[in-house]
Design a protein that fits this description.
Layout: E1 9-15, E2 24-29, E3 32-36, E4 52-55, H1 58-62, E5 67-71, H2 77-80, H3 83-89, E6 95-97, H4 99-111, E7 119-121, E8 127-130, E9 133-139, E10 148-154, E11 157-161, H5 179-188, E12 192-196, H6 212-220, E13 226-230, H7 236-248, E14 252-256, H8 258-269, E15 294-298, H9 308-313, E16 326-330, H10 339-351, E17 355-358, H11 372-382, E18 386-390, H12 394-406, E19 421-425, E20 430-435, E21 440-443, H13 453-465, E22 467-475, E23 480-490, H14 499-518, H15 524-543, E24 548-555
Parallel strand pairs: 3-5, 5-6, 6-7, 11-12, 12-18, 13-15, 13-16, 14-15, 16-17, 22-24
Antiparallel strand pairs: 1-2, 1-19, 2-3, 4-21, 8-9, 9-10, 10-11, 19-20, 22-23
Helix pairs in contact: 4-8, 6-7, 14-15
Length: about 550
């Protein structure tokens, strides 16, 4: 009699690999599943009308009775942005996160009308047991407070998931990464390392956040203009350094931008920001003070069209107008794909006579992710048996895999992940297994999710070639046209300058209906389809464009 196969731990990548954002990984063993992170990514240029992209939860929904908990590494959107969508599907699943992350998450859930979520605060050093999994939270440094790595103890060995991290020996306002604990776990034995790959191509070390204090000091020293600093709203450490520099040089600080205001309010309430008494002023009071007495901290460092800085640059902000008496500092690096948006804002600021400082010409930004030498340190301390790079585009994953190989790990122990891929970990090995349904789910303003590729293709056609709407009345008893066709176009041609073409399209529609009715076709849907195809073909031949054709037929008796 053959022995039954022993169960294996499944590692299921629902996001966070082969692209920036949408971080979400499930771990499964028999009847238990835990999920680490549940983030969003932001739409590509061709995702017209899409606001957010979230993971596909189909696999989890098919195994809903197994899901024991959601554990969050930190509070960035690419790690928590999809939590409201997750909880709408799994309302009873508990969520575990550190204090600031929960503070941010509570506001997000409130906006979605989620009131009874099971939120549990954890601290670095805590160990959470969910089913067969026991997970230890480990302090790491990142570009926001309360970031944690996780060591997941499973029936088949330990898995260390770093989350997003850097090695910062002089962090601002928090403890440095817990390298001793990571080393101790390495000595005990790490079967599998899942490690942040965002900066895997960059040599050396990521500078400390505290290194920016000198840069801000140089900017504020003897500066007689109003200083406007745009940065990521979640970078509480950066905001703290801006406040410190402002206080040193006698400046009041105002906040602009909804997300920045929300983050600052949460950070102050929870004790993550040290705010000198009286330093904060309302945005409406900015004009009451001379420029050299004001610092404005704002959103919009990525050139987002609806952000506060964008509205200031284009003269659309209700309270702030920028000009010669302003210095704008972009204290961030460009997220891939946002370069054009940022350049657009910079050009507009220069047109207004506003000076601009960016990370490319001044030390006003440091990354929150580990570079190659820091990654080597984590590999050396953990000495994992197997390795899967995560959190990055495919080129980052390849660079990180190469780093592991350079450090002596055999190629057969290194795996490149893909969204939907399942890896099975036994007591002896790790092997790629099947692929489950996974991938991006597009969400528009309705928040309902599930925008299909067909809808996106329709939106793309409308944006490129416009639409032709053909309406007519027919009498299927008399088999004739009862109301002559009318043609309206939008985004296709300018009607006043192309009346002849519209007349020809109208005649094409009329002849199409005459031919169909003459053949005895009395089915409205067939008539609509034939009309749509013939008008579309005529428009394509005459203009080389492919507008969307909408046909409306009414049954009207003569």
């Amino acid at each position: 009699m053959s022995k039954s196969k022993k169960p294996k731990v499944k590692i299921i990548f629902l996001g966070g690999v082969d692209g920036i954002g949408m971080n979400c990984t499930a771990f499964e063993y028999e009847n238990d599943i835990i999920v680490v992170d549940c983030g969003v990514s932001f739409p590509e240029d061709d995702m017209l009308g899409v606001d957010l992209v979230i993971p596909d939860f189909t696999y989890l929904e098919n195994n809903a009775e197994k899901v024991r908990g959601l554990l969050i590494t930190h509070g960035h959107e690419d790690h928590i942005g999809a939590v409201p969508h997750f909880l709408l599907k799994f309302p009873t699943v508990p969520v575990f996160a550190a204090r600031l992350t929960l503070g941010i998450l509570e506001g997000k859930l409130s906006e979605h009308g989620i009131r009874n979520a099971k939120l549990h605060e954890v601290h670095a050093g805590d160990n959470i047991k969910l089913g067969c999994f026991s997970t230890e939270f480990i302090n790491v440094n990142h570009s926001m407070p309360d970031a944690c790595a996780m060591c997941i103890s499973t029936p088949c060995g330990r898995i260390l998931h770093t989350g997003d991290f850097k090695v910062d020996y002089t962090p601002v306002g928090e403890k440095m990464i817990d390298l001793p604990r990571i080393a101790e776990l390495g000595r005990k034995g790490i079967r599998l390392l899942l490690c942040d790959s965002t900066n895997a191509e960059r040599p050396g070390y990521t500078p400390s956040e505290s290194s920016l204090a000198e840069s801000f000091d140089r900017i504020f020293n003897n500066e007689t203009r109003r200083v406007v600093i745009a940065t990521f709203s979640s970078n509480v450490h950066r905001v703290q350094q801006i406040i410190n520099a402002s206080a040193k040089y006698g400046r009041s600080v105002a906040i602009s931008g909804r997300s920045m205001q929300n983050f600052v309010n949460a950070a102050v309430k929870l004790g993550y920001l040290d705010m000198p008494e009286g330093i904060m002023i309302d945005l409406n009071d900015v004009k009451k003070l001379p420029p050299e007495r004001v610092t404005l901290v704002t959103t919009g460092s990525q050139g987002e069209p609806m952000s506060a800085l964008y509205r200031m640059a284009f003269g659309e902000h209700n309270q702030i107008s920028l000009g010669f008496n302003d210095l704008v500092v972009l204290s961030s690096s460009a997220i891939p794909g946002n370069e054009k948006l940022i350049t657009k804002i910079i050009n507009e600021l220069y047109k207004r006579g506003t000076d601009v400082i960016t990370y490319s010409n001044y030390d006003v930004h440091v990354s929150g992710h580990a570079c190659r030498e820091e990654l080597k340190l984590i590999h050396a301390l953990t000495a994992p048996e197997f390795f899967i790079p995560v959190h990055g585009e495919y080129k980052h994953l390849v660079a990180h895999a190469d780093l592991a190989h350079e450090m002596g790990m055999h190629e057969s122990h290194i795996f490149l992940p893909e969204i939907g891929r399942v890896f099975e970990m036994s007591n002896r090995s790790i092997k790629p297994a099947n692929i489950v349904q996974a991938g991006p789910v597009m969400v528009d303003g309705s928040g309902l999710g599930g925008i299909s590729g067909v809808v996106l293709r329709d939106r793309k056609r409308l944006s490129e070639d416009g639409v032709i709407i053909v309406s007519a009345g027919i009498d299927t008893e008399a088999m004739c046209i009862s109301v002559d066709p009318e043609v309206i176009s939008r985004g296709f041609i300018y009607e006043k300058e192309n009346e002849e073409l519209l007349s020809r399209i109208t005649e094409c529609a009329r002849q199409s209906l005459i031919r169909s009715l003459a053949k005895g076709i009395d089915d409205i849907e067939i008539l609509r389809t034939r009309l749509r195809d013939e008008v579309g073909e005529y428009a394509r031949k005459r203009t080389k464009l492919r507008p969307m054709i909408v046909t409306i037929l009414f049954e009207i008796r003569l």
